[in-house]
């Protein structure tokens, strides 16, 4: 039986500096404790809202029962204070009715399904910056049962997986981490556990998918997932995870968690993002792939995918991120970037073509050679 508790890498570049090889300790997963938990009356009417409140109170966290369904009092005196206050607040609410009409989410999946919005971590390139309005409070949805029931109508629809011969066996895919990080929150809500069980019992060509920078998988290992949930771990080279991914689980913990789920029969994946050509990037990403190789080498029937996403920013996301992290060392210099226009005229700043080509060729070659069983789903 492969050892699921520890993975070490003899090729850790830090070893040359006198550092020891990395040890992965999956049971030391990081868990968020919000300072403030709010619940609206509408959320308390929902069975899952009641389950979340019971779960949070059982953890010894006080829950404020609001009189109205609007969230107020989230702003501080300064932008920093508003950020700090919002990031430490969990709100249990009912999802907006518009969320019942699912949006396509190419290239990741056919449809986006939201079980929450917001995240307590502090990544300095956060994908949510500029996408969500107002203070970055974490909202978790109490109407989970209706959200999951609504998915039935989408069976057999969607463009992403049906058009791709490489992905047609996935069935209709639902992405449940567009606006949040599931494993940052599930210990407080249980929502993604229920979603895994829902898909496990849904005997149809469907797949639930999510990606995470956390490692808190204890409660998922023994769930009846029936292979219909693919959990991807968002990973990066060590300098990126250590400099710019505050409040997340370490890279080593994430890979140990991936290993545990793979050993439990889950399809798993790597979301390598955001890829950045920092100084020495080949060596650093080489080390990342080395850790992945070690973590997956002896997993029986490994089903591993990779999604490769380079760093990009918009004028709006840059402004929001500089408000949240005014002293960030993250490069967001328009002069260093090429412009990419999106479907609705939105402008993104991406790496220039020669840099993109270099990165893409390197990842394609290295993944083919070192992780031949890994299916690359897309590069962007
Ligand atoms: S884990 Fe994801 S959603 Fe959370 S702060 Fe980091 S990038 Fe944003």
TrEMBL record:
<protein>
    <submittedName>
        <fullName>Spore photoproduct lyase</fullName>
    </submittedName>
</protein>
<dbReference type="GO" id="GO:0003913">
    <property type="term" value="F:DNA photolyase activity"/>
</dbReference>
<dbReference type="GO" id="GO:1904047">
    <property type="term" value="F:S-adenosyl-L-methionine binding"/>
</dbReference>
<dbReference type="InterPro" id="IPR007197">
    <property type="entry name" value="rSAM"/>
</dbReference>
<dbReference type="GO" id="GO:0042601">
    <property type="term" value="C:endospore-forming forespore"/>
</dbReference>
<dbReference type="GO" id="GO:0051539">
    <property type="term" value="F:4 iron, 4 sulfur cluster binding"/>
</dbReference>
<keyword id="KW-0456">Lyase</keyword>
<feature type="region of interest" description="Disordered">
    <location>
        <begin position="1"/>
        <end position="21"/>
    </location>
</feature>
<dbReference type="InterPro" id="IPR049539">
    <property type="entry name" value="SPL"/>
</dbReference>
<dbReference type="Pfam" id="PF20903">
    <property type="entry name" value="SPL"/>
</dbReference>
<dbReference type="InterPro" id="IPR058240">
    <property type="entry name" value="rSAM_sf"/>
</dbReference>
């Amino acid at each position: 039986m492969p050892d699921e508790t520890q993975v070490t890498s003899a090729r850790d570049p830090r070893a040359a500096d006198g550092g020891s090889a990395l040890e992965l300790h999956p049971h030391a997963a990081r868990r968020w404790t919000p300072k403030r938990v709010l619940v609206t009356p509408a959320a308390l009417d929902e069975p899952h809202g009641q389950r979340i409140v019971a779960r949070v109170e059982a953890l010894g966290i006080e829950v404020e029962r609001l009189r109205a369904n609007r969230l107020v009092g989230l702003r501080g005196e300064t932008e920093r204070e508003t950020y700090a206050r919002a990031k430490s607040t969990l709100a249990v609410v009912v999802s907006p009715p518009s969320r019942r009409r699912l949006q396509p989410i190419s290239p990741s999946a056919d449809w986006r399904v939201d079980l929450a919005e917001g995240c307590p971590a502090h990544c300095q390139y956060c994908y949510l910056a500029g996408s969500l309005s107002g203070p970055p409070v974490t909202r978790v949805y109490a109407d989970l049962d209706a959200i999951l029931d609504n998915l039935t109508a989408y069976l057999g629809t969607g463009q992403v997986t049906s058009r791709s011969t490489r992905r047609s066996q996935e069935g209709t895919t639902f992405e449940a981490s567009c606006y949040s990080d599931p494993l940052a929150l599930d210990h407080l809500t249980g929502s993604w556990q229920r979603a895994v069980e829902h898909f496990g019992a849904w005997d149809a060509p469907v797949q639930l998918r999510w990606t995470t920078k956390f490692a808190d998988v204890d409660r998922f290992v023994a769930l009846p997932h029936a292979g219909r949930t693919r959990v991807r771990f968002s990973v990066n080279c060590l300098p990126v995870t250590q400099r710019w991914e505050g409040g997340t689980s370490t890279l080593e913990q994430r890979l140990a968690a991936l290993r545990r789920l793979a050993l439990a029969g889950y399809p798993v994946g790597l979301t390598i993002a955001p890829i950045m050509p920092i100084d020495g990037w080949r060596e650093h990403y080489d080390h990342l792939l080395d850790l992945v190789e070690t973590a997956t080498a002896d997993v029986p029937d490994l089903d591993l995918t990779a999604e490769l996403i380079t760093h990009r920013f918009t004028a709006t996301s840059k402004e929001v991120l500089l408000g949240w992290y005014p002293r960030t060392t993250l490069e967001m210099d328009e002069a260093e970037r090429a412009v990419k226009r999106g479907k609705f005229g939105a402008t993104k700043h991406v790496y220039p073509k020669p840099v993109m080509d270099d990165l893409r060729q390197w990842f394609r070659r290295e993944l083919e050679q070192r992780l031949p069983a890994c299916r690359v789903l897309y590069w962007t």
